[in-house]
């Protein structure tokens, strides 16, 4: 696939998707949307990929929507996402909308936030499973300062990550948030000096790729993203069903054998 506005590469069982409009601080466009969706689907389907890293080229992760495109947008276009083809028919429909499909990917998605993360860029960061940021990264929801509302499910996702009061603060004020504050309120998992961000992110990603069962990760990820729609009883019954399956799987046998034999595991994802 010849992508126009992203870079895509696979190495050490890690797929890296890089937003590639550094001259525009990786401002989001319809072309970028198509490129990222295709690359995510490719990484999800590739048995050689166990972890996905989403990042940006240059000094920003994504500074929000391309303002030239936003000025010319047709208001009816915003509802196009309501009919987006499902990413995975076996996953909950709530995670099949225009941008909220990252949780339907059965592999960990790490947002490596290397700079400004604003507006729709923040939306994409929130849909990643984990967020590692450079310690000079600045975050903002942006919407209220552009006369816009909380878009693409951020009103649902943000409170579940930072809490209701913090979400109201970030959305209503649309103020700039430092990486230190982002870490304190749980918006990001970890922060690193810019010159260490890549090394530390990929060290974590390689640890997942090399030492963690892909089948276990897939189920655990699905469990956590379905919990907001379940009762405790439903979550427990689901876990018991999945445990029965896991106990019959080769990854379970390999996990026990590698521990007993004091060697690295050779998981197959089955």
UniProtKB/TrEMBL annotation:
One of its GO terms (molecular function) is enoyl-CoA hydratase activity. Its EC number is 4.2.1.17. InterPro entries: ClpP/crotonase-like_dom_sf, Enoyl-CoA_hydra/iso, Enoyl-CoA_hydra_C. Belongs to the enoyl-CoA hydratase/isomerase family. NCBIfam families: PRK06210.1. It holds the Pfam family ECH_1. SUPFAM superfamilies: ClpP/crotonase. It comes from the Bacteria. Keywords: Lyase. This is Enoyl-CoA hydratase.
